[in-house]
Design a protein that fits this description.
Elements (H helix, E strand, L loop, with lengths): L5 E5 L6 H14 L4 E5 L2 H12 L7 H24 L3 E5 L2 H11 L1 H14 L4 E6 L2 H12 L5 H20 L5 E5 L4 H12 L10
Helix pairs in contact: 1-8, 2-3, 3-5, 4-5, 4-7
C-alpha cells in the first residue's frame, strides 16, 4: 500500500477555491482514494490577531498563535495515521495563507506564523489557484449579487499578487501556481495534472 499525501489548495476570494476542492475531492474518491477534508482555521486566528492589535484582547499575538498551533497539533496524529494508511489529506488553505494574510498586518508576524504552521505538518503539494482580477470579480458578483466595494477588490488584487510572488520566489517547495481562469472542469484538470503523479500509481485498498 502506498502512503498517502497531503494537498493544500490556496487562493483569494473569487478564485474558485471551494469549487476546486470539491471537484478534486470527488476525483480522488472516484480514483479509489480515501480523502479527509481539513479546513484550516485561519479566519479565527486572523480575527483574534486583529483584535489583539487593536487592544481588544489581553493575550499577545505570540500566545494566540501558539494556542492556534496547539489546536492544529491535536489533529496531527489523525492526519498522520490517515496518510500512513494510504489516505489523502485535503486542506482548505494552510501556511501560505497565513503568510499572505498576516503579512497585511505585519510582515514579520506573517513570516513567523507561516514558518510555525509549516513545521506543524507540511503539505506534499500546495496548489495556489490564480485568476485575473476581472474573472474573480465576476465570480463574486455571480455568487453574491454584487461585486463588493472598490477597496475590497483592490485588497484582493494585492493579496493575489502576494501569492504569486511567494510561489515564484521558490522558497516554498511544492507550491505551484494553477491557472483558474477557465471553467471548473479546466481548473480541475490543471490541478489533477500536478496531483496525479504524486499518488504512487495506485489507490489505497
Amino acid at each position: 500500500m502506498n502512503p498517502g499525501i497531503s494537498i493544500t489548495v490556496e487562493g483569494v476570494d473569487g478564485v474558485g477555491k471551494s469549487t476546486a476542492i470539491a471537484a478534486l475531492r470527488r476525483r480522488l474518491w472516484w480514483a479509489g482514494h480515501v480523502v479527509s477534508l481539513c479546513p484550516y482555521p485561519g479566519a479565527r486566528l486572523r480575527r483574534d490577531l486583529a483584535l489583539e492589535k487593536a487592544g481588544g484582547l489581553d493575550h499577545t499575538w505570540q500566545e494566540l498563535a501558539l494556542r492556534h498551533v496547539a489546536e492544529m497539533l491535536a489533529h496531527r496524529p489523525g492526519e498522520d495515521q490517515h496518510q500512513v494508511n494510504g489516505g489523502i489529506v485535503l486542506r482548505d488553505r494552510y501556511s501560505l495563507s497565513t503568510l499572505v494574510y498576516q503579512g497585511e498586518v505585519d510582515d514579520s508576524r506573517g513570516q513567523w506564523l507561516s514558518s510555525l504552521v509549516s513545521a506543524v505538518n507540511p503539505s506534499t503539494i500546495t496548489l495556489v489557484l490564480d485568476a485575473p482580477d476581472e474573472v474573480r470579480e465576476a465570480r463574486i458578483l455571480a455568487r453574491e449579487g454584487h461585486g463588493g466595494d472598490t477597496g475590497k477588490a483592490e485588497r484582493l488584487g494585492m493579496l493575489a499578487l502576494e501569492y504569486r510572488f511567494l510561489v515564484d520566489s521558490g522558497r516554498y517547495p511544492g507550491a505551484v501556481l494553477v491557472d483558474a481562469s477557465g471553467t471548473r472542469e479546466e481548473t480541475l484538470e490543471r490541478c489533477w495534472a500536478h496531483v496525479e503523479p504524486l499518488l504512487g500509481g495506485g489507490a489505497a485498498q
